[in-house]
Amino acid sequence: MSPPVLTLTDIRKSFGGVRALERVSLELPAGCVTALIGENGAGKSTLVKILTGIHQPDGGEIRIRGTPVRIADPLAARALGLGVVHQECQVFDNLSVAENLFIRAQPTSRGLVDWRTMRQQADAVLRDLDAGFDAGTPAGRLSIAQKHVVQIARALTHDSQVLILDEPTASLSQRECAELFRIVRKLRDAGRAILFISHKFEEIDALADRYAVFRDGVSVSAGALADTTRDELIRLMVGRPVEQLFPKLETTPGAELLRVESLSRAGEFEDISFTLRRGEILGVYGLVGAGRTELAQTLFGVTRPTSGSMHLAPDAAAAGIALVPEDRQSQGGILDFSLAANVALTNLARLAPRGWCSGARERALAAEWIDRLSIRAHGPGQVVRSLSGGNQQKVVIAKWLARAPGVLILDEPTKGIDVGAKAAVHRVTSEFAQAGGGVIMISSELPEIVGMSDRVLVMRRGRLRAEFTRQAATGDALLRAASDA
Amino acid sequence: MIRFFARFSDATRRDLAFGGLTLLLFVAVTVAFPGFASPRNVAGLLDDTAILIMLALAQMLVILVRGIDLSIAANLALCGMLAALFNRAFPGAGVLPVLALTLVAGGLLGAFNGILVWKLRLPPIVVTLGTMSIYRGVIFLLSKGAWVNENEMSRDFTSFPRTGVAGLTLLTWLALLVFVGFMIALRRSRLARDLYAAGGNPHAAEYSGIDAGRAQFIAYTICGALAGMCGYLWVARFAVAYTDIALGFELSVIAACLIGGVSIAGGTGSAVGVLLGCLFIGIIRSSLPLVGISAFWQMFINGAVILIAVLVSARERDRQGQTLEARA
Q1: Chains A and B: how many Cβ contacts under 8 Å?
Q2: Partner of A387 for a Cys bridge, out of A151, A391, A421, A455, CB 3.0 to 4.6 A?
Q3: What is this structure's pTM?
């Protein structure tokens, strides 16, 4: 193995008493893709911010080709040859691609920006990557995948020897991923060191040579990918056997609760038909952009279908449908309200029958749900923004469960929350179903879908592509149905 | 025609289209009133619009970095009063010290806005609404509410902006100089490109080593300096200084920016667009009396043009979004 380009030793970082990185070591050899895996909150993003120069480590050592360095700010990171492709696109939509590549480093002649040279150099880099668009294109007109390519090209423009890809495939289609991987492999073969952060094992298998696992701010293991198994990696990531994660209660689905008949909404989804039975958890799997969230919004009534129909059992119609949306922070809860006010929001008809709110009644209801969902908070009065992500999600779930809905729709219910909160969310979901409710659970996490669902629907490009029973729903089968393969 | 337009960026296309519209307006008025295109009238039109042009260019910098400067006219009035008082105290000092004084004073007032926005992270609209009142208040304190009239001003002080050079006033030449300076600097200085980046995506700017707050500070300071200089020019041109000069003018300045295609969301705008926005307003303002319509319609027309401009760019954005989806 060639000597490492980048070496991190015992990096530590805390934010106001919260330890994000406790003891992290990492080596990136040249000509090699190293996959960095770990659950949300394991410290991956903090590490990226340290390598970008946004945060300074509290301790530890960073070496580049053996020389200790300090990454004072993003410009220093760039000068040291560290390039990053961020998860959320760090691209300037209002500028041309050429300017995006040369931001803060425009070639000049006599003190003025030399646009012609900039265009030529940018075009050369883009041609090298077979990017398929030219440097004069306004970046705002590019797709997300193309914007990732812009970020890679930006790193190459500055001759980065280390390229950090922070979950670059989160919103890419299968074909766009393949294109991105082609470029990454090309760079690897050219001898660059690549750190690939991903949640998806399929991608890690396809792209990476080595792996490093973080758990709770500690680097727990690293090595060659060929020497390990997926189960072993999951065990390292989670630190406990996976079964415990999905405390699913066995239920026998009862009578029909919801029937959807060829529901369509122009441009979003088409001809969706399915039924949901009492006590059933119906998983909906698909890649990002398959139309799942849009379907949930139509079922919940945020948007109206262009055609098709929905039929609810009379008691369920009276109890209503609840939606725990994917975007917890902007759609799920009102972050600046107290926990009690959030839970009360969906229950005002009951709590304030004559239009006057009662703090005491609101607090009592909230206290009940804090207890039932074991929400970690000082009390009903605590502002939701100050809770951890997992507890915020529990508040959003509590606000809907307090209504005792007939149908509960969960859209990515455990996205970005820690393992403990995940298990708690799964437990209440299961309990709700066992008590006779119907659950529609949208998720991009295969283990969650496989572990929780009684039945799984797979969506692809706005259509239902397959339906699996609990027995038939294996990860491989679902993934095949969901992708274009 | 479409192929011809496709060669240019969105912003340039917009400038071309709006330039065509402004020219059309000019031609239409000229057809009805042939005297409108006479050199004398055009020179007058430019002279009337010169201060608006400089202020709108200054304001554009601030809007570019997601700010807004409501205090721009108050800054102008305060620096105008400073210029008048300085001239009364030192009538023989000449014009250069006055220009330097107003540039520095205006720059400091702008920097004060900038510091509050940058270091205290206060919302620009609140900061400048506050300083707008404060700056007006300071004028009252300085002047004790009294006017400085023409008989208290020295001759070279008042005649400087009105001096004719090659058919245009010095005031007009100054505005053209500022315009050309902006055009080159916005396109080709690294500083300006940083401003565009910081306004377009502050988060990404941070990751590129650009301090978006500092960019705002710089924009406010330059804006203030220009507003200060315009204070002297305004006072000299009208030969009077008092607390309420240019009252409410900040709104005309912002209107000129918006009509000229500066995006209130930041990151988009060009010197040519702003110049056209100012000329458009200038042409309408000077042709309304000719057509026999009350000047009060000016406000109505400005407003309508802003709404139409915003509507057109919103539709454009929707259309582009759709083509992107279709491609994906």
Answers
A1: 80
A2: A391
A3: 0.79
